[in-house]
Amino acid sequence: VIRRPGALGLAFLTVLGWACFLGVLSGRAELFLAAVPLLLALLSARLDVGPRDYVLSHELSSSRVFTGDRVTVTVTLTAHRPIPLVEVVEELPPLVERAAGRNHAVFTLTAGQQVRWTYELACPTRRRFTLGRLHLRFSDRSGLWVGETEHFAPSRLLVYPRSRPLRRVPRPRRTQTSSGNYVSPAFGEGLEPGDIRPFVPGDRMKHVNWRASLRSDRLHVTQYHQERNADVVLMLDTLAEVGPAAATSLDVSAEAASALTAAYLARRDRVGLIEYGGILRWLAPGSGRRQYVRILDALLDAEVVFTYVPKDLDLIPRRVLPPQALVIALSPLLDSRFVTALVDLAGRGIDLVVLTVSPTTLTRRAIEADAVDDLACRLWQLERLGLLDDLRRRGLTIREWDPAGPLDAVLAGCERRPRRAALVG
Amino acid sequence: MMKGAAILVALVPLALPLLLVPSWLIAVGALVSAALFLTGVRWTSIPFVAAGATLALIDYTVALRLAARPPDVLTATAVGVTLVLVLEIVDFERRTGGAGIDPAVIRSQIRHWIGLVLGGAAACLGLTAGAMVFTVAVPPAGAAVVVAAGILVAFAGAVWALGRDDSTPENVEESLHEDPGHL
After folding, report:
1. Of the candidates A78, A82, A68, A155, which has an alpha carbon nearest to the alpha carbon of residue A115?
2. Other Cβ atoms closer than 10 A to A297
3. Whether the predicted pLDDT of B179 surpasses 70
4. Is the ipTM of this complex over 0.90?
């Protein structure tokens, strides 16, 4: 608790002193009279302005939201003793914006009175936030003497990257054994008709192809392709990031990862996540709503941890990075260690798609337009195009994404034909 | 709204010296004072408003000297009360600027300011009346004794004010640590 005189007291004293000085100097009683209201105001100051008997609560409308959503904060203050004047300010963490209302309010309360105050916050980027740090300033009506204190009632707010719906996603070249949405070349139970062959004992009657049977005077059956799922591993580059604070390349990549996760899980695929950075973290492929939440939670904590140590892909268990999996790497391709890892993965024959966020676009957003910076960005872009060409020559599928544009448009051009030889499910 | 009210109130101590002595000298002083007031109100800066108030007092003093009239209690009261009011309003705006203000705060604050104005005016008029009674009742020789007594009382008051312990009570801080939610 800090008690201190307000700025007004000093101002009153200054003017009062001048009035007395001028009164003595001029010998006019009017100036002493003019000083009387100032003296009276000074004497009316109350020194016991410290924290009063009160209860303060801080509530959020939701503790889990997606980026861009709004959260309503409700602060309730109940006074057990009269409070002449209290200012309440909530300190907002960086990257949390005030969307509606004010996080600074002034109240006067009688004994037993309760006031409720609400405002809305917008969360433009994925993070774990802790809200509820409130600063209170008690004062008398004049503010000649103030008492300040802090009230911390932590309220956790999880802001997940928003999953924008994707109509088209890169199709895995290899499928797994579980049923899914991809047509496998292997025959079995499915909906997609494949071949016609003569009937053999054990075939089901509903598979008999009557048209072919009538033509050949022999029973024939239609074979169907199996429908299988696939393993998809999202590999997030957490070695480096660029861009404005609320929309770094990592934030944008996390948003893309969230959208891809939702899209693949909706297709009944198993999705896993690898954070390739200073700290190597992973989630084994899984399916269902639970896996979606697990990946979102992991994306929430994804951050760049600086390291000089190159991370070896051999550290990643086989169950996390199955050889049949489709790996989608999300990276600005700024760190050569990540590029090396990608080349390594491609060399192992892993089905790999690189979705690279353009760092030059993000950097341009973070800096002011300047001829020198513009030239530097253009040179950087040229250098980057050279790197991308080199990687393409090595057989990598690379899609460059400008975060200002829709991800769907980038992925739509990523249609790949399945390799027939490798499609045995 | 508060800024507009502050500017309106500030017009009173600026205009009164001009009404006493309508001269260029007073007008220039009032203009400089008005500029300081306006800057202080615009940026809600108490030092600027205090400077404007001081300059307005100087302007008033010059006007009183030039006018050489008998003491005018009402004008002096008006100057003192309005200076207090301007400083109060600007300081309130400074503290609450950008904040959501409960209507009850505005109501209670207006009541407080009305109380200050009435209290200040009553004190001025009371003191004037007391001084008149004192002039009649006390012979001129006793004035020196009263002045000496006044100096002694002021000195004793200053000693008492400096010597009193108004620091933060330890028990309040302890209770904060024990139960931060319930003070």
Report:
1. A78
2. 14
3. no
4. no
